[in-house]
From TrEMBL:
It holds the Pfam family DUF3618. The chain crosses the membrane at residues 51-68. Keywords: Membrane, Transmembrane, Transmembrane helix. This is DUF3618 domain-containing protein. It comes from the Bacteria. It comes from Petropleomorpha daqingensis.
Amino acid sequence: MPRDPRQIQLEIDAARESLAATLDQLVYRSSPTRLKAKGQAAISSFLQSPVGMATIGAVGLLVTVAVVRRIRNHD
């Protein structure tokens, strides 16, 4: 028995709305501005944590040692 054209149209419309909502979610999730802000927030949060502060300290120490060695070897 053939399907009712109105029912088919309703199913097509529902599928179209669902696809549009999915596309809107994908656009939102992949927004460069949003991703940038999310990355900056994650980095800021890490750098303010004890582990992040220790990492900054260690990098600072390594840079200081490298600069001192370079100055000493340059003379």
